[in-house]
Amino acid sequence: MDVLFTFVPKENQQERLQAEFPEVTFRFLYKNKSFLPTADIVVTYGEDLTADDIDRADNLKWIMVASAGIEKMPHAAIADKGIIVSNVKGIHKTPMAESALAHLLALKRSLPFIYECQRNGEWNRKTHSSELAGSTAVLFGPGAIGSEIGRLLQAFGVRTIGCNRSGDKAEYMDEMVSFENSLTALPKADIVIAVLPSTEETHHLLKKEHFQAMKNDAIFMNLGRGDLVEDQVMLEALETGEIGQAVLDVFEEEPLPADHPYWQMDNVIISPHVSSHSGKYVERALDVFIPNLHDWIKGDTSPSNPVDMKRGY
């Protein structure tokens, strides 16, 4: 059996795989797809496979995506060949939840202001700090990541309202609403956090009326995908004061162009799509992949976290 990694794990991680699966041929090649025609399994971040690649992958039966997002993959080509796709849904929850809390605490406790005063050698106690406790947060996408954010927010005394397609109950949410009824929840929110994937349903889901419904001092945070909000809608909401602050980890165009207005705006924090980054990322991905590979070798071709290429998640 041939397994092709289109990224290169650390040496100790490669050794772990080779020791656990001596009968498997592993190839660890950064974006080098020369062995695709013989690969039975491909492990990828999901951004480097094209329809042509899939066409020449004669033996390929399973693509393991070491990411949650699959929007850049050649969906039709993969579906046409009946290739199984799975991802590592859930492994991002710890770093992304910590990122969300870090940004919120920094803003509430005036850390950017304090750091700037230090750089300027200025003793200024007019921080205008506030607290998370007693506030309300609306979370678009209360799945594995959103629920972990909710758990941490609740520990800080924040009321959490989850928003998903159905409005069905989710962990660590005090209340739930559907996408359709989200406008009823947004006026209550001091904080709005989005961790939604990129799908047809979520494309430009948040529109001008959603930002108009938010408090004018609300903090909006997007850690999911940039196409949740049309860029011009986001820009106008910030320029007109419909919301108070935005923390943006994702954008419609990435990298964010150097001349984009966000760079010069005091009420925007630009995070270059790094909220999920962690030194433990690949280790956690392998913790998902290894049990699935054991099962695959035994004949179980139903890996955990299967992805429906038609739905996009």
TrEMBL record:
D-isomer specific 2-hydroxyacid dehydrogenase NAD-binding domain span: 101-275
Domain of life of the organism encoding this protein: Bacteria
Lineage, uppermost ranks: Bacteria, Bacillati, Bacillota, Bacilli, Bacillales
Organism: Planococcus maritimus
One Pfam family in the UniProt entry: 2-Hacid_dh_C
Domain D-isomer specific 2-hydroxyacid dehydrogenase catalytic: 10-303
Gene3D superfamilies to which the protein is assigned, alphabetical: NAD(P)-binding Rossmann-like Domain
PANTHER family noted in UniProt: 2-HACID_DH_C DOMAIN-CONTAINING PROTEIN, D-ISOMER SPECIFIC 2-HYDROXYACID DEHYDROGENASE NAD-BINDING DOMAIN-CONTAINING PROTEIN
PROSITE patterns: D_2_HYDROXYACID_DH_3 (PS00671)
Listed name of the protein: D-2-hydroxyacid dehydrogenase
Keyword terms: NAD, Oxidoreductase
Family statement: Belongs to the D-isomer specific 2-hydroxyacid dehydrogenase family.
